[in-house]
Amino acid sequence: MMQAEQGAKVVVTGAGGGIGAALARRFADRGARVVVNDLDAGRAKAVAEEIGGLAVAGDASSIVAEARDALGGTVDVYCANAGVGRDGGEPGEPLDERGWALSWDVNVMAHVRAAHALLPDWLERGSGRFVSTVSAAGLLTMIGTAPYSVTKHGAYAFAEWLSLTYRHRGVKVHAICPQGVRTDMLDASGSAGDLVLRPTAIEPEDVADALFRGIEEDRFLVLPHPEVAEYYRARAADPDRWISGMNRVQQHWEATR
């Protein structure tokens, strides 16, 4: 676990709370120098002060250069954790194109922009670690929010592409795909989240534990909820049966709204 040891230079986006804060704390506990990024400057500063790190506030899409400068010119580990859960309007309802655009920009393009900025240095020195906080929705789906489900599939696909393209050149990639996690995003997910995610929700610290196990075992796919592997296999083996089952969940949700 070379890049998580003493002196590693780590950036965590969306780290003012939730999973991001848990990741920042865990890396700092392992002796890393951590840049804490969040749109909320106050929250970023609070976590950075707690862990002895550095706060870089702002949009996760555009902070690589500033974070690299803060760390003395090098980033060893980049955690693309910032994300949004938005409803873009169901078919037949008014289409919220701004919700779709925001979800695409934060959940996918922020990862693409970060990788674009990081890869030249990583490929030159033959090492680097990219951690993508995706979601089980990126492997399966989530009722009630098309933008979140679609863009998390995109985030997973991009992480997978990064890994298969650059693994042999020293770039390590991890895709974290939890189900419900007790964060502000879960609280904002409404009745769909209460039905599907909350019953098995875990703590952000559990996600950090799963990531570090994945790093130690050099695994691309990190599943804080191990049962997601079975769901993913079932989905691949019989897509029609899987969709029928999820449609029953959708119907149950509609009946209880």
TrEMBL record:
Pfam families: adh_short. The keyword Oxidoreductase applies. InterPro entries: NAD(P)-bd_dom_sf (IPR036291), Sc_DH/Rdtase_CS (IPR020904), SDR_fam (IPR002347). Keywords: Oxidoreductase. Belongs to the short-chain dehydrogenases/reductases (SDR) family. This is SDR family oxidoreductase. It comes from Streptomyces pimonensis.
